[in-house]
Design a protein that fits this description.
single chain, alpha/beta, 8 helices, 29% helix
């Protein structure tokens, strides 16, 4: 039996959740209950974002064409469950935000968060700005910049990143953006434990307080989303820039040297 929806162009059924908006086919969610549980009242906004990703995101090369049919399970819900690891009213910077994963999704599901989408490429920031306007996300700012260019402007509570770079490199870019005690939440896959071990020397030089592997979204997304959580220490502060003790004083590598995202350009 098909159930109605207040959002035009959406077909909800007991077995699937398929979005057929005016912008085209946007994927399938096997469990309607999961989508409603994760996004709650923000589900219509998430639907509009999915439609925009499936159309403009694919056309502009921000996500691969094969991703359009699995946007919900692989991307939207996978990112949304990260919100359970972020404290209330946190200031967040999403590094290498690309198509807005996870930053846009977190902004949709958690309007209490203040989120900066940090992205150096013009075509991606243009896409992100269109998303913010389309979805009326008043808790989001888009910044076209490399991580190294904003270290003296930011001391945030949480830094997020998904499929941006190995943790050893990501830590060098993210930790200087955090306040003491702030957290890096890196969405990782099967190599999460290996990357954490390989990043050990860098994390030690930064004087991080703790590290751990987390799985969030169990029972909502399969497999659960794996996070590497790194809690920042004080390190050595230069102005507002945190630098690992003993690290060179010159500028490090910025976002322009990040690798290509899986399933994204």
């Amino acid at each position: 039996m098909t159930q109605g929806s207040s959002h035009p162009g959406v077909l909800l059924s007991t077995g699937t959740f398929r979005v057929h908006g005016r912008t085209g086919f946007c994927g399938t969610i096997r469990s309607v209950g999961t989508a409603r549980e994760v996004f709650g009242d923000a589900l219509p906004t998430a639907e509009r974002y999915a439609a925009f990703l499936a159309k403009a995101g694919v056309e502009r090369g921000l996500i691969g064409p094969r991703e359009a049919d699995r946007l919900w399970e692989r991307h939207l819900i996978n990112c949304a469950v990260v919100s359970s690891a972020i404290p209330q009213d946190a200031q967040v910077v999403d590094i290498g935000s690309g198509a807005g994963l996870p930053g846009i999704v977190l902004a949709i599901v958690r309007p209490d968060l203040r989120i900066t989408l940090l992205e150096p490429l013009l075509r991606r920031t243009a896409f992100l700005n269109e998303c913010v306007e389309l979805l009326d996300l008043r808790n989001v700012e888009v910044r076209r910049a490399r991580a190294e260019d904003v270290t003296e402007e930011f001391a945030v509570d949480v830094a997020t990143a998904r499929a941006v770079a190995p943790l050893e490199r990501l830590a060098r870019w993210a930790l200087p953006l955090l306040r003491p005690g702030g957290e890096l939440l890196a969405l990782k896959g099967e190599r999460a434990a290996t990357e954490l071990e390989e990043a050990g020397p860098v994390l030690e030089r930064f004087g991080v307080r703790s590290t751990e592997l987390l799985q969030v979204g169990r029972g909502m997304v399969d497999p659960p989303t794996t996070l590497v959580r790194v809690v920042a220490g004080r390190g050595e502060v230069v102005g507002r820039r945190q630098r690992a003790p003993g690290a060179p004083k010159g500028r490090g590598r910025g976002l322009h040297e990040h690798g290509t995202r899986t399933g994204q350009a």
